[in-house]
Design brief:
By secondary structure, this protein is an alpha/beta fold. The chain has helices at residues 12-24, 35-44, 62-70, 89-98, 110-121; strands at residues 4-8, 28-32, 50-53, 80-84, 102-105.
């Protein structure tokens, strides 16, 4: 059974890169352009095996998105990996406090991303 991944990023290029990398690894990918759209996807569809989210996005940033996801009972245990250009320790700590499972800095290595997803989905 293939893993179902929700990728939330405001960059179309990044969404396309994630889709290419993850579908190439046999995963099913759903994309959303920001946190608001990501929450809409979660409400409409079945639960993903993992979520990948950018931090800097319009309407609802990654921190707000992660906090909102964690308030929904059925997604409390869903792994959330932050994928961002940011690397400041205080932002990593803030993301962990919001409920993020891990942190990956862009540009990403597709193989490492796939390994990270497989590691957090057990």
């Amino acid at each position: 059974m293939s893993l179902k991944i929700l990728a939330v990023d405001d960059s179309r290029t990044m969404r396309d890169m994630l889709t290419l990398a993850l579908t190439g690894a046999g995963m099913e990918v759903t994309v959303a352009e920001d946190g608001v759209a990501g929450l809409e996807v979660l409400e409409e569809g079945g639960p993903p095996d993992a979520i990948i989210s950018d931090i800097n996005m319009p309407r609802l940033d990654g921190f707000g998105f992660i906090e909102a996801v964690r308030r929904i009972d059925r997604f409390r245990a869903t792994p959330i990996l932050v994928l961002t250009t940011e690397s400041a320790p205080e932002l990593k700590a803030r993301a962990r406090g919001a409920g993020a499972t891990g942190w990956i800095v862009k540009p990403f290595d597709p193989q490492k991303l796939v390994r990270s997803i497989r590691m957090v989905t057990g």
